[in-house]
Structures are given as C-alpha cells and as structure tokens.
Amino acid sequence: xxxxxxxxxxxxxxxxxxxxxxxxxxxxxxxxxxxxxxxxxxxxxxxxxxxxxxxxxxxxxxxxxxxxxxxxxxxxxxxxxxxxxxxxxxxxxxxxxxxxxxxxxxxxxxxxxxxxxxxxxxxxxxxxxxxxxxxxxxxxxxxxxxxxxxxxxxxxxxxxxxxxxxxxxxxxxxxxxxxxxxxxxxxxxxxxxxxxxxxxxxxxxxxxxxxxxxxxxxxxxxxxxx
Length: 226
Description:
Layout: H1 2-9, E1 17-21, H2 27-34, E2 38-42, H3 53-58, E3 64-70, H4 79-89, E4 92-96, H5 103-119, E5 137-140, H6 146-158, H7 184-192, E6 193-196, H8 204-225
Parallel strand pairs: 1-2, 1-3, 3-4
Antiparallel strand pairs: 5-6
Helix pairs in contact: 6-8
C-alpha cells in the first residue's frame, strides 16, 4: 500500500498517532497499525464522506504525527484546511486516493449521475460539490436507520437493482480497532448510505428501472416514518 510506504518513509512508527477516517475500508487503519503506530479515528463531513477538519483537530494530541485523508466515492476532501492544520501543528498530511479509471468512464458516470440526480425522489442524492467523479453513486435512505436501509436494499435487489451497502460497519466498531468514541456523522452514514449502480455499461432503461424502484420504495418508507 502506497500510504504505508509514505508513512514509513516519513518515520512514522511506534508511539505515533495517525488520524484516519472510520468510514471506509479497514486497509488504512491496518497500514498504520502495521507500522506500530496507533490509528485515531476522526469524524467525516456528511456531504463529502471525507474527514472533517474540525473533527481532526479535536482528536489531536501531543503524540499526533500524521493525518491520512481518504478520497471517498469520487468526492474531493477539504484539503486546504487540513493542509493548514498540518502546517500549524507539525503534522504530515497524506492523501489516499481511489483509482479514477479512464476519463471516458468518468464522463459516462457523471452523465448517469446527472440523470439520477434529476429524477430520484425517494432517496437523498449525493452532494456534487466542487468536484465529483462518481466512483460510486451513494444515496441516503432516510428512515429509522440501518433496519430501514437494509430493508430497502433487500427490496431493491428483489426488483433487480444491483445496489450495495458501501460501508457495512465503521472501522472503529470492528473488533480489532474498537474505540470508545462517538462519531455521529460516520455512524449515521453507515446506517443510511446505499450505492446504486452507475457506469459506462448501464443503459438508459436500467437507469429508468433504478429510478422507478427507488422512488416507489422511498415513498413507502417515507409514509411509514410519518
């Protein structure tokens, strides 16, 4: 993993703390632990799903040595405040980026995302922000948390929609990295988020079927909550 190599090259090791997100894959926390350092979890910005600079600053201690900023789902994190924080506190700030893929595929993903944005009513659509390459098209199922989202997934799959839960369990809730910390934005995202199919091979008919299924299921869910 490139991040582990960069941390090792910077001299990160035993006794150091490295701030990482809990919303996402476990690999970043594992890379930190394998160096003998301690992963410390900060909360995310609920719009970008990337580290929230204010939360990062709130978890810093004299042992903090680095921050690993993960690009999530194709959204760009708030790098400027994190870079400024790193300079002010003497921290190494590393970016961990997803594989972007060919530009033609990105263009098609953006087209699909725009179509879904304009038609989806039963779920919360992603915030495009200043830049979004839509590595995943992640929506929010607004209900009573994980039971509703998981029921939505089962029903959507029953209608032939290849949807997925992007982060079933935040890293700070996994046995190896369990921490007695509260990360409300991370925990809510883990309960509500759902990745819908998007990509260059998706046909307009398949997109229409996704919209119809999600709008119908979302309407039922909204009525149940009311």
